[in-house]
Amino acid sequence: MPARALTWALAVLWLGLSPLQAQREPLPPSATEGHLTPLAPIPDWTLLEPYQLTLTRQEFTDRLVHLYAADPASAAIFNRYASIDDDQAVFYADESRMVPRFHLHFAPTADDKRPLASILPPLATDPAHPLANLTICLDPGHIGGDWAKMEERFFQVGNDDPILEARLTLLACHRAAPLLEAAGAKVVWAKEDETPVTPLRPADLRSAALKAFFEAGLSPTQFPPALLEEKLRVESEKLFYRTAEIEARADRIEKLKPDLTLCVHFNAAAWGDPASPTFIPQSRIVVFVHGQYMPDELLYEDERYDLLRKLLSQTAPTELALAEKISQSLEDEWHLPPEKYTDWPAVKKTGVHPYIYARNLLANRIYPGPVVFVEGPYMNADDAYPRLEAGDYDGQRLIAGKMVRSIFAEYGEALANGLIAYAKQAKN
Questions:
Q1: What is the C-alpha separation between 307 and 301, in angstroms, rounded?
Q2: Are residues 260 and 338 in the same domain?
Q3: pTM, 2 dp
Q4: Whole domain around residue 100: which residue ranges?
Q5: Of 195, 182, 199, 202, which is closest to residue 140 (Cα–Cα)?
Q6: Shared domain check, 173 and 55
Q7: Residue 174 CA neighbour count, 13 Å, CB half
Q8: pLDDT tens for residues 193-216?
Q9: Which of 41, 83, 114, 277 has the maximum number of C-beta atoms within 10 A of its C-beta?
Q10: CA dist., res. 56 & res. 88, Å (int)
C-alpha cells in the first residue's frame, strides 16, 4: 500500500470513520496538484466571461499591484499561475501551466472598453429618502449563543453579564436597520439571531479537518491518537465557525441580491483568560475594504479566482467611497484614534481616512457586490466595556461618570449616517 494511502487508512481508524465514509472521502491532493482552501467550492471560471474587454492591460496591472497583490511576493505567486501579455491573460490551475482555466481578453485602448453595468442602482432624488432604490444587507459578525465560547468571542468579568460579540453586533445592526429604512433603503439580513446559518456542525467537518492536515504537510502519524483527536476537534470547530458559517452566509446573500453589504463587528485586544480578561485603556477603530492578498493565500485556486472576480467586477472604488463616509461618521461619533498596524503584512493602508485598510477576509472576498467590514470599539477597553455592560436603552444614562446614549444606538446611527452621506455625495 502506498505510504500516503496507509497514512489515510490509519487516520480513518483513529477517527472512527466507517468503511463507507472512508470510500466517500478521496485522498487529499499531493503538493503538486492544484488545491482549494477548506470547504471552498470549485470555482466556475465561466462566470468571468462577462468581463471580457472591460479593462486594458495597464488597468489590470495597476489594480493588481496597488490593491490586491500589493506585496511583490504576492504578485510573483499570482503570476506563477498566469501568462499575461498586452492582449490577454491566461489563468491556470497549476504552476506548470498545463491546465488553463480562463482566457481574459484586454481592451486595446480605454476607448475600446465594453461598459460594465453600474455597481449600484441609480440613487434616489428625494432628499428625504436618499437610500431609496438601495438594498442593504446587514451581516452581524459571529454566531454567538451556545457557540460563543467555541468562537473565542466570549468573556466574563466576575458576576457581570458575559460579553458575546455576536450579541453586541446584533444590537448595533438592529439600531442601524430602522434608520436605513427611514432613509428609504430595503434592509436584508445575512443572519438575524444567535444560531448558525450553516446546517453543518463541527462533527460533520472532521474529515475536512484531516484533509487540512495533509494540505499543511502534516501526517496524522506524527501525533499520538489523543493529541490527534484534540487537534482535529479544534480544526473542525474552526472550519465550522470561520469557514462553513461564512460560506453559508455568502450563499444566503447571493440569493438576497443586495446592492452592498455591511459586516458589523466589535474589536478587541488579546484578553487572555476569558474568566479574568486583560483590559486596555482605549479603543481604536478600523474599517476594512477588500485587498492585500498574502503570498500563501494565492497558492489556492479559489483565492486566485476570487481575486480576479473582485478585480474585474470593479467594486473597489465603491467599497472605498463607502468606507470613507462610514469612517468619517464613526470618527464624528466617537472621536477614537485609528487602529495602527506595525509589521503585519496582511493589511495595507489605503484610502484617505486613517481608519481604512485593505485586508483579504473570507467575508469581504466571497460576499457578492461591494462589502465594507467595520470593527467597532474594543470589547475589553476601559472606554467601551461599561457601556457594553449597560446594554441597549433609549435616551441617556450615567455611565462611568458621564451621561451617554447607548453605544449600540451610536454605532447604528454612525453606520446609517455614513451610508446616507455616501448617497448624497454620489448623487451630486
A1: 10
A2: yes
A3: 0.91
A4: 49-115
A5: 195
A6: no
A7: 13
A8: 999 999 999 999 999 998 888 777
A9: 277
A10: 9
